[in-house]
Amino acid sequence: MEADTSRNEQLQQVSELSLSTAHFAQFLQKEIYEGASLNKAMRRLRKLVVCTLIKRDLCSQADLNEVITTISLFADFVVQQHLQALNAEMQAMHGTPIGEESGKQQAMIVLGMGKLGGYELNVSSDIDLIFCYAEDGETQTTDSSQRSLSNHEYFSRLGKKLIAAISEVTEDGYSFRVDMALRPNGASGPLVASFNMIEEYFLIQGREWERYAWVKARAMTGNDYDIAALEKSSALSSIVVILIMARLIPCAPCMPRYGQKSCARKPNIQSAAITSSLDVVAYERWNFWHRFSN
Fold first, then answer.
1. Closest to 220 measured CA to CA, from 117, 110, 119, 72
2. C-alpha to C-alpha distance for 120 and 235, rounded to whole angstroms
3. Which contiguous run of DSSP H or E holds residue 60?
4. How far is CA 92 from the centre of its chain?
């Protein structure tokens, strides 16, 4: 009898669940207020989200776009909520990470890759993540009980906690399986990387399939100014535009002539005359090859 009552309550929750981030947050707050931990509440929410999507799909109430978009947005929500809570715990113990060059507070940027990066997850997908941060430096403590760490160590510990919070299997299941294999050097590489580390890796030894993977990279967390810097800097934009296009498809007539100082194939465009992304790719492809081969 109790099992039937519990099942009916779950079915009622499924029928009432609105598939929006705002409703996700409301459900989570209610569960935590009633005494559930964040991990437990998030896993319960995942079950409801998945069941709701399956129900709507089977009843022809949801198309493919609704399913993959909703589960992708839910993955964003899971990562953001856990990271916010864990970062607060880390700051209480070790202080605030500060960039040694800018003097600004640093935040861990979680990049969604693959299907997650393209908002294409299905209900059984794992999530491909990469952790990075803008600058090296150390945490700034405000209390004698806090122990300062390097930014790299701080974000490495934070990343490990985040993976465990999301993927650890408990009596309530898991939120998402996490795959970190797309990070520089894969499983043998550091868990987190600074922008400079990422740039150096791709300039020197990044493999072709890794460059392809970065086309779908999407920042899910982080400070707005760090995300903007990542998107505009050579750490990401050059990987997507220059490294993929230039490294894989260099200017063919000049490939064997490393000493050549000029090239008849240089795109004849000015910045004001760039009219399409293909113009940008053509120019950056020429510029990259001649900068590193001459």
1. 110
2. 24
3. none
4. 24
Q: What is the CATH number of the domain that holds 226?
A: 3.30.460.10
Long-range contacts of 263-268, Cβ-Cβ distance < 8 Å, separation of 24 or more: 263/290
Asked whether residue 113 falls in the same domain as residue 236, the answer is yes
Judge whether 235 and 115 are in contact, CB under 8 Å.
Answer: no
- Residues 188-238: tens digit of each pLDDT: 999 999 988 888 887 777 777 777 788 888 899 988 777 776 666 544 555
Question: For the chain, how big is the Rg over CA atoms in Å?
Answer: 23
Measure the CA dihedral 202/204/205/206, to 10°. 20
223: which 2 tokens?
């400070």
Number of domains making up the chain: 2
**CB 140 within 8 Å of CB 98:** yes
Domain that holds residue 260: 249-294
DSSP assignments along 18-75, one per residue: --SHHHHHHHHHHHHHTT--HHHHHHHHHHHHHHHHHHHHHTT-S-HHHHHHHHHHHH
Are residues 11 and 135 part of one domain? yes
Residues 6+ apart with CB under 8 A from 236: 198, 214, 217, 230
Say if strands 192-194 and 127-133 run parallel, antiparallel, or are unpaired.
Answer: parallel
Token duo for residue 62 = 């949801």
For the stretch 155-195, pLDDT in tens is 999 999 999 999 999 999 999 999 999 999 888 999 999 98
Same domain membership, residue 254 and residue 243: no
Residue 119, phi-psi category: left (phi > 0), alpha (psi -120 to 50), beta (remainder) = left
Burial 137-168 (b: 16+ CB within 10 A, else e): bbbebeeeebeebebbebbbbbbebbbebbee
98 DSSP assignment = E
**Whose CA is closest to 293, among 249, 246, 248, 259?**
259
